[in-house]
Design goal:
Blueprint: E1 3-7, H1 13-21, E2 25-28, E3 43-48, H2 61-67, H3 70-74, E4 76-83, H4 93-102, E5 106-111, H5 116-133
Length: 134
């Protein structure tokens, strides 16, 4: 199975989600001046969504900076997005934006740190995705 790359803010919701998956993952740093990870194999990106009431700003600057590097962007194969259902139509909107901009599938959406059901669905879905992708 290929890897995961994720961003998690100081709240740690996405980091907890990724830790519960128990799969190898590289973390995009919170600090904008920190060194970005360099994936060497195809990966799925997992990131939270941050948007105003109009949906602007859904993708955090660190994820944008990570994906602005063409070598890193070339290896992305899918995106999984976190969010808060309180944002209605803008729930997990970073996933929709990244999927459209990078021409990749939005594989799954989860709320906050996810549930055990989310973890089970993502594990099974990633296994199937990488099997079919290979």
């Amino acid at each position: 199975m290929a890897g995961l790359v994720y961003f998690s803010s100081a709240s740690g919701n996405t980091a907890r989600f990724v830790a519960r998956l128990g799969l190898p993952a590289l973390r995009i740093p919170v600090r904008t001046d920190a060194t970005m990870p360099t994936p060497v194999e195809p990966y799925v990106l997992i990131c939270p969504s941050y948007a105003d009431g109009m949906g602007r700003g859904a993708v955090v600057k660190q994820v944008i900076a990570f994906l602005n590097d063409s070598a890193r962007r070339a290896l992305i194969r899918g995106v999984i997005a976190g969010g808060n259902r309180n944002f209605g139509d803008h729930f997990a909107s970073a996933g929709k934006v990244i999927a459209a901009k990078c021409n990749i599938p939005l594989l799954y959406r989860f709320e906050l740190a996810g549930t055990e059901t989310d973890i089970a669905h993502v594990r099974a879905g990633l296994e199937k995705f990488w099997r079919e992708y290979a």
